[in-house]
Amino acid sequence: MIREPFNDGWRVCGRTSIFEQMATGGAAEAVAVTLPHDAMLAGGRSPDGSDGSHTGYHRPGAWRYDKDFEVPASWASKRVTIEFEGVYRDAMVYINDAFAGQWAGGYSTFHIAADPYLRYGQANTIRVEAQAHKDSRWYSGGGIHRPVHLLIGDLLHITPTGLRVTTPQIDDELAVAAVAVEVINEGTGTRTVDVLVEVRDGDGEIVATDHAPLTVLAGERATVRKRAYIRHPALWSVEEPNLYTATVRLTGADGQVDEARTTFGIRSVSVDPIRGLRINGATVKLRGACVHHDNGPLGSAAIARAEERRVQLLKDAGFNAIRSAHNPLSTAMLEACDRLGMLVMDETFDMWTIGKTDDDYARRFPQWWERDVDALVAKDFNHPSVIFYSIGNEILEAGTPHGARWGRLLAERIRAQDPTRLVTNALNGMMAILDQIPALMAQAQVSGEPAAEGGFNDMLDGMGALIALPEVGERIAESAAVLDVVGLNYGDSRYLIDQEAYPNRVVVGSETFPTLIDRYWKLVTEHGHIIGDFTWTGWDYLGESGIGRPTYPGEPASFGAPYPWLTASTGDLDITGRRRPVSYYREIVYGLRPTPYLAVQRPEHREHPFQPKGWAWSDSIASWTWDVPAGTPVRVEAYADADEIEFVLNGTTAAKVPVGTGKAFLATADLPYQPGTLEAVAYRGGAESGRCRLLTAAEPARLRLTPDRPHISTDPQDLAYIDICLVDEHGTINPISDRTVTIHLDGPATLQALGTARPSTEEPFQAASRTTYEGHALAVLRPTGAEGPVTVTARADGLPPATVTIDLRHPGHTVSATTTRHEPARS
To answer: The Glycoside hydrolase family domain covers which part of the protein (predicted)?
Structure first.
């Protein structure tokens, strides 16, 4: 089926009932948008947002999307399907005002058969309704947040998910690509076609081909299976993500009937408690990042370039694996993981039959779980990056017999469709013993009262002792038994206990505290049955506001922070993609960074220095520019794989400190602040092994604009990211003299977002002005479809204007035939 983008020309407004429209004189005014789009982001925030800090104080809503489109008369003999990659949530689809289909879940791809409702040779309309209200524990966004496609094909065609490739046999000389093609004949007569299978390598060269005739009765589905033999295969791995393309063409007496194409990788996956996880026979330890689905300033809109950029920056920071939390990844992100070499744990649900919020997916789960599981497998099947399916996250009923039964149903549903991948479940032992926690805490002598200086993150210190209790192991035993790999959230205290009790069990830290990566990684590297660690989180996110904030005396010690807090403030990378100090510490723990890293705790809190705990790293940034008097004591931190650190202030040794005294890979010292140069010099065996330097910045002299790329595509699924920073006359960033920056564009692009990583703010991402945070802001440009230069001008009071130009160029390809996606849902 020919697959065309269906993302332009949409309008969105708040959804109102017919009775409200009668009372107010009409529907709400619609705004033109290009998909993907997040309707909730435009609705703004308020202290009384639907679920408070959980959703970042964003307002709930119900929305209506409309689009007019032409349907040629020639399509009357075709099959027309509309593919939605994700609508949040409870999508209702109408074509020419007739109900055409629905989908309850907010993250699944689904298909709507359009034919019965179309007016051929005329203008047509499509309407999509969605809503979000107290149904998520984080910022969900709302509306059509993933792309939409129009599929047009012959009545005899390959189904949207009908091309699937596995690689059951691999060695250095030969690989077998097993190609399965599902064809459906929706015509009224029997038809015979020739099925041609063609495999090309990354250079576009044909490496295997085969064909066979196929006869399909009217109304029948048929599956063709061919085995392509690829000599000297280039394997897919994190280090070398080699991809192949499989193309299938159906040809009848009158010429080509249909075509489908998909990329795939040749790689093997195995796991055992001795050698751990192996990709292509080589052991791989997972350096994992949990990620939510939002794109920071873009909200939940899964624009392809935004998804790719996240994968690239996470890989640059040392990660080799992503866990989708807690819903299936977008297709665009999976495609980026395939291209860039990132392993994926793709997750299904955050709840099954027991809800976690007032109106979440638990109310739909019993009727919809099979369709959503099928949609996940269909989306992921050909992506070599996907090595795990996770059937849930911290499922409340997982510690019960009936919960274990549900887990078995989900796991077997997946295995029946895709036996080539591993099945896991992110189990949290605390959830298994919620009814016993008061008594068990007393028994284990674990205090639940937060210390004044640590707030909520101090409460988390007791989790390990509770999860290690025998009662937890007993309650999760059956749920764990249905899995190939047991995911444990914050369950490192069970790693070695369970090795003794269940010697055949393989475990992964499916969600862990970022502050304890030194301890976790030692366990991972020393034990074969522990295959990796996924930190919470790799990328900061909207909602669960302030769970990773340092809390000081006199501040509330609650789970979330008060309005106007916005972000969780717990990612290795902030919501704009800049690395935070914990990211460099992790990179050193992984053994990927040979040089030290230097950070400084904020001197305004010098009387209460904050140590890493729970989700909160120390309150530090990489800066030696502070608005405090000279001589003020400040705490400096150096992260290094070294024996000792020498802190050198303006050329003079200020302190020499051993590394790892209080925490592995960390050295700290209290120094008097003096403007100038601060260096951390690392020593191993008495010899210098690396150094890091911070410079004091003068007052900002100009704005510096740095685009991520000099030119981009005209495709609205592409984006340009421009880093805006305040620098002094020598180019040093000043993080303490923030200014309001205003952006103006001239050319065929729009300002999609302007944001910073400031965790607490009332400034919206959609405005053209924004106050910098620690000297930085980020502008995101989206093409409107035309070629030409786009000039970006930034202005701030007291500084000269700064400009940068980005070229927009037409992509050098035409619309291709469909890749395989989901089976049309005839609902």
So the answer is: 703-805
